[in-house]
Every structure is written in C-alpha cells, then in structure tokens.
C-alpha cells in the first residue's frame, strides 16, 4: 500500500485563501442598505464556509479508497437523484425548482449530484481495467449520467446539466473511450443543444441577447453590459474595496453570478488576476495529484473534481466578460451560495486525500 504523505500545503493554502477572498467579496458586493439582506447573505456564507472547511478537514483525513465501494457509489448517485426529484416537487424559488428546503436553509441538490457523478464515473473506470468502451462500463455510465442530467434540466438548470455532461465526457475520453463512440456523440451534441435552446422562447431571447447585447440594453443584454462596465471601470488598481458603483442595483446578482465583475471593479486587474492565479495553482496541484495517484480510481477522481471546479470558474468568468450566454453558474469559492461552497470544499477534501496517498 502506498505510504501516506504529508498534506499538500500549497493546495490547502490556495483553497483557504480563495474562501477568505470569497467571504470578503460577498460582504463587499452587497448593497449598503442593511435592510437589503446584506447581513443575511454574509452570515449564511460565513456559516457555509465554516461547515465546508470542517467537512473538508474530515474528508481529507479519510483514505479516498474508502469511497470506492459499490454500495457507497450507487447510494450516493441514488440519493442525489432523489434529492433532485424532491427539489423539482418543491415550490419554485426565483422561477426555478433548483432548491429544496431544510428548515430555514435552502439546499441545491445539483451541487451534490456533480460530486456523486464524478465518484460514480471514477469507480466505473476503475473497475474495468480492460477499457471503458466495454458495455458493462458504458451502459451504467450512460444510464447514471443521463438520469441525473435529465432531472437537473427539468429544474431548469442548464449550467449544471452541461457541466455534468462535459465532465463525464472528458473523464471517459481520458480513460480511452473508443472513437466509434466519440464521433457520433460529437455530431449529436450540437443538434441536441440547438433543439434544447429553440424549444423555449426565453432561451432563444437569451442567446440573441448574448450575440448582440447592445440591441437590447435594458432587457436581455442588460446583465452583460453592466458587467462589462464594472470590469472596465476597475482599471488596473480598482476603485477600492467596497467602492463598487455597479453593485448599487445596476448589476443584478452582484454577490453571486457576477461576483468576479465586482472583484475586477473594486480590486482592478490586479485583483482579478490574483483570483485567476489561485485557480491556476489549484489546477496545477489537482492535476498533479491525479497524475501521481496510486490507482485508477484516485487518478480519475482527482482529475474529475479538479476539472469540475475549473470548468465552473471558466464558465462563470466567461459570462462576466460576455464570451458565453448567462447560465447561472456560480464562481467556486467566491459566489454567494452555501450549497456550492460546501460541496466545492468537500470536493477539495477528496482531492487533498488523493494527494496524500501518492
């Protein structure tokens, strides 16, 4: 059995720093009116950070191979499916059925589903060393990922559904999926994406607003235009912490979906680059942990979890600068949202556990 090594201090440090930056920016991005929920937002984020960091410390001290058991992998996927179903049956919040109520708290099951799917795929790849193109791997992978994706889409939560599909495809590709499966999937995906967009009028309007936001500056182009104003007004040094003008009811969801815009406005190019550097370091240490993992399960678990965090960050930041349509994908560690923060830190705990057993 590989010897347990010391904790990856670089990875641990960058995760904690990103969480701290997130707490500061959630506090700063809230409007100055105390009656507007600013205290509630910050306190809920602080509680989520404490719970998430505690969970990360627990998970990182458990041998990651303990999770590679059929009963746990299938139970985790099953529980996530049930919770997503409960959220769909719950009263909508902001026009979406993404959340389920846990007393005074709201939990987003799709965040749990992302981690459950990565564990599930890493286990399926690990249990079949002769190749993932075998039906006994592809069938359970297709059924499991397909069910989760379809349920998440019903919320509707296109961002999470797309993220699950992209990570699943990437993990199977890296595991050596045959081109006879890759080519048809690559050809079919654009057609399915087009059908999904054109099936609802609001999705078409959102895409049109993304392609030409200036034609509808007070409607579908409003968010991205206000985001670009925030980023541009930050300059190199920024306006100063707490000095954002766009957060004063100009930029919607300033503390969640568009938190990076506020970072760039208040801390400037230097602050935005520092946040990006944090994700680059996380990518380096995460992929290195997978590369040096002692088994296939650890390798694909680390690669999948690292990719999930990075792709989410890439999508969120791309939205803020107008490179992709608005998806509602949070920026890991920084965006306001307890479910996202806690499950991201649990994922980092698994990643740290893999790195300790190289």
Report on this structure:
The mean pLDDT is 87. By secondary structure, the protein is mostly helical. It is 66% helix and 2% strand. The protein has helices at 9-29, 38-60, 70-89, 109-126, 135-153, 158-174, 179-198, 201-211, 222-234, 259-291, 296-320, 338-355, and strands at residues 100-102, 105-107. It contains twelve helices and two strands, in the order αααββααααααααα. The chain has one domain (9-355). A two-stranded antiparallel ribbon has the order 1-2.
Short characterization:
It contains twelve helices and two strands. The chain has 358 residues and is mainly α.
Task: Record the SSE blueprint.
Elements: H1 9-29, H2 38-60, H3 70-89, E1 100-102, E2 105-107, H4 109-126, H5 135-153, H6 158-174, H7 179-198, H8 201-211, H9 222-234, H10 259-291, H11 296-320, H12 338-355
Antiparallel strand pairs: 1-2
Helix pairs in contact: 1-2, 1-10, 1-12, 2-12, 3-4, 3-5, 4-5, 4-6, 4-11, 4-12, 5-6, 6-11, 9-10, 10-11, 10-12, 11-12
